[in-house]
Design a protein that fits this description.
about 325 residues, alpha/beta, six-stranded parallel sheet
């Protein structure tokens, strides 16, 4: 069910080859203390006085953005729970082998200071959080600059709502910004070009006209489901794969909705986000047995597909997830 067609697999191979080439051919022309670099991050101009040499990251997608750009030699460590999937076969296994795993929870001021970090790359709800005081402003007071993952940028609609641009644009924005900051702009450009080509290949296979399958992203939750609005990565992964995100009208990234809205919108397909203590199989069993969902098309026809957590948060694995989901949605359309 989750295996891509051979052509899609070829595109993925080409994209990874491009990313690997970018990471090995170009050498960073950034020195350890040269001219300042100004970037736009979450709508604000931020100036970095020097190229970071001891970066710490929070979570798997953010960490792999650094690895995809070949920047593991600029890293002092990462924080990440060990429930985010098997890392043995990932394209950036070498980065994981080389860089220190600081915490199997989230970053704290203490482990950032212990790592002698000179830069923190995290996001709101991907490490940065007000309740613990671990914020960009708090780090600034310690003399440590930071960069906020664009998928997680707060958008001002509420105190917590997130997302300011389409999700793949967020991915490309962060790759380009990191490329500029670390002096690896050619690597970033090659990655972005390869990812755009991969996504365009999948998009070209979507039949013109006709209804797109309605897709509900199920992350977690029984009383209320946690899902993706239009600013989290699943929204555009679903769209580029040929479907429509059931919660596209929600102006947030990851958020909670009501089961009644899921039932009323009647998804054709449910995508399970696989991570955490509750396995994908247990999540599937819950969805298939939950009484309010019995009349929903996806449940009646058992159209439930699983993608990994890192596929579905902003990460360099997003384009490959588009390819895999695109293959599945084509089988749904072909089945009528």
């Amino acid at each position: 069910m989750r295996s891509p067609a051979s052509a899609a697999a070829l595109v993925l191979t080409l994209a990874l080859a491009l990313s690997g080439c970018g990471a090995t051919v170009e050498r960073s022309d950034a020195s350890s203390g040269d001219a300042a670099v100004t970037l736009t991050n979450c709508g604000r101009q931020v100036t970095y006085d020097r190229v970071p040499e001891r970066v710490v990251t929070n979570d798997v997608g953010i960490t792999e953005l650094m690895f995809a750009l070949g920047l593991e030699d600029r890293m002092a460590g990462f924080a990440m729970p060990d429930d985010k999937g098997d890392l043995t076969g990932v394209p950036w296994k070498g980065g994981y082998d080389k860089v220190r795993w600081l915490s199997k929870d989230q970053l704290t001021k203490e482990n950032v200071l212990d790592a002698r970090a000179d830069f923190v790359f995290a996001g709101w709800n991907y490490g940065f959080r007000e309740d613990s005081g671990f914020t960009p402003d708090a780090l600034k007071k310690l003399g440590i600059p930071s960069y906020v993952l664009t998928e997680s940028c707060r958008n001002g609609r509420t105190d917590t709502s997130r997302g300011i641009m389409p999700p793949l644009d967020a991915l490309y924005t962060d790759l380009a910004n990191l490329g500029k900051l670390f002096g690896v702009e050619q690597r970033a450009a090659k990655l972005i070009a390869g990812f755009r080509k991969q996504v365009a290949y999948v998009r070209a296979k979507i039949p013109a006209g006709g209804d797109r399958p309605r897709v509900f992203l199920y992350d977690s939750g029984q009383d209320q489901p946690f899902t993706s609005g239009r600013y989290a990565a699943p929204d555009q992964i679903i769209s580029e794969a040929g479907g429509t995100n059931l919660m596209h009208d929600v102006a947030d990234s990851w958020t909670t909705v009501g089961w009644e809205s899921v039932v009323a919108r009647d998804p054709d397909v449910i995508v399970i986000c696989d991570y955490g203590d509750v396995s994908a199989e247990r999540k599937k069993d819950f969805l298939l047995s939950y009484a309010p969902l019995r009349g929903v098309s996806a449940v009646k026809h058992r159209r439930i597909v699983v993608l990994d957590y890192v596929d579905l948060v902003e990460s360099p694995r997003n384009p490959a997830a588009v390819a895999r989901l695109g293959t599945y949605l084509r089988t749904v359309r072909d089945a009528g």
